[in-house]
User: What shape does this take?
Amino acid sequence: MGQPTEWWRSAVIYQVYVRSFADGDADGTGDLAGVRARLPYLAELGVDALWFTPWYLSPLKDGGYDVADYRAIDPAFGTLAEAEKLIAEARELGIRTLVDIVPNHVSDQHPWFRAALAAGPGSPERELFHFRRGRGADGELPPNDWPSQFVGSTEPVWTRLPDGDWYLHLFTPEQPDLNWGHPAVRQEHEDILRFWFERGVAGVRIDSAALLAKDPALPSLADRPDPHPFVDRDELHDIYRSWRAVADEYDGVFVGEVWLPDTERFARYLRPDELHTAFNFSFLSCPWDAERLRTSIDTTLAEHAPVGAPATWVLCNHDVTRTVTRYGRTDTGFDFATKAFGTPTDVALGTRRARAAALLSLALPGTVYVYQGEELGLPEADIPRDRIEDPMHFRSGGSDPGRDGCRVPLPWAAEAPHAGFGGEPWLPQPDGWAGYAADLQAADPGSMLTLYREAIRLRPEFGEGPLTWLPAPDGVLAFARAEGVLCVVNLADTPAELPAHSALLLASGPLDSAGRLPKDVAVWLRA
Ligand code: TEU
Assistant: This one.
């Protein structure tokens, strides 16, 4: 027998967007009390860990990705003592906790930024950020031409202060970028990591992980600087090596939010002394197409193998269009650049495909992420324009619908007010939302929730072994894992014969009358 496998190499990790998960005090905002009350639900779902999007003190200008104090819980969500209880209670149920660290920027209400504003141009306080004089005769032009990292945003990444200095913010003006060339910034983040590891968290998700390091000259992109002045810079690897040393003291793990098209560059973050894992956005963005999915799976496995890191499989998160809606469209891929209001979708078709995609992703070797509500098959909600809060919408000049449609408070109980979420939800729940309620689905053997529960329960049958593709007709994905368990997904127009098997373990939908696998259905079989 070899060493027991490290838990994070084959885990199911559930993403909790606290604000919309469950509202314990009925004020319309989800909170830690709500999560604690629902821990039995999460245990029954069978997940190994929870990733909490930022729960720290924040003005919530970007859903908490604008942190004012990393060592305090936002009062809307609860207290630090409650977070500690939650971490301990989850652990008693066998569920680990990951927190979300946002190292690229802080809130403009963070004490460091307030001090920098007060201290004025040229002060040491301003060296913790990127303050510069502007271009032009009177410094009236921004220091460079960098584009916003909210894709589709037409807004500048520089804001000018009355004292004439400009400051850099790759996201909103309320999220000033930190200067990672400054030793105090590095020291502070290592302390923050320790603070949370000391409180029992098992891991950390790293927000915008490939963006923090900047070329100190802040050159304009028009001058074609090489390397890129703020994406994927080599200095990052040194930062993550020192973070890894901290994590290793606590057996902690990292998952990086690394959006990089270059697979070789991506894999560099996963070297043995850097991040344990990173999100697989190629799989998330991939259209519902057999060849494209197969290529994405093969590329993913091939890029991870040399560095010995497990792959992750992600279908959605708090930034992207919900799977059920996306898979029901003509264009089933995800791309920030093509998001638009009113894109038609066939939710029944999308749901059928999302069920098959759940079985596909849960059969693959590596770690799977489930975003809250994915297990309920929630569609993307249409948010009335006057209720949209997401800055991505406003910074696109109103053309991008933003990300609120995947952040609507969850339906828990069909008969309760606000579908059992709690108080009047901070984002409106669309008509019919109660029909997706967890209590209805728990009692329905054909529901998405039941499918997820069964799939997560059966997933260990696949073991830890590698994936082997089996011969299959065009449009059919069929693979075996070393333990002799098979996954077959039919994306072709015609029904497919099942390979020889001794048992059918799970199916995302019924087989046809001849026992064949219909279009957009997946099965797990024992060989
Ligand atoms: O998202 C990061 C993000 O939006 C960018 O990495 C972007 O996706 C990329 O540049 C596209 O090419 C994270 C959070 O998940 C998101 O909710 C926050 O709004 C954002 O960071 C800012 O903290």
The radius of gyration is 23 Å. Residues 111-168 form a domain with the Oligo-1,6-glucosidase; domain 2 fold (CATH 3.90.400). The chain has a mean pLDDT of 97.
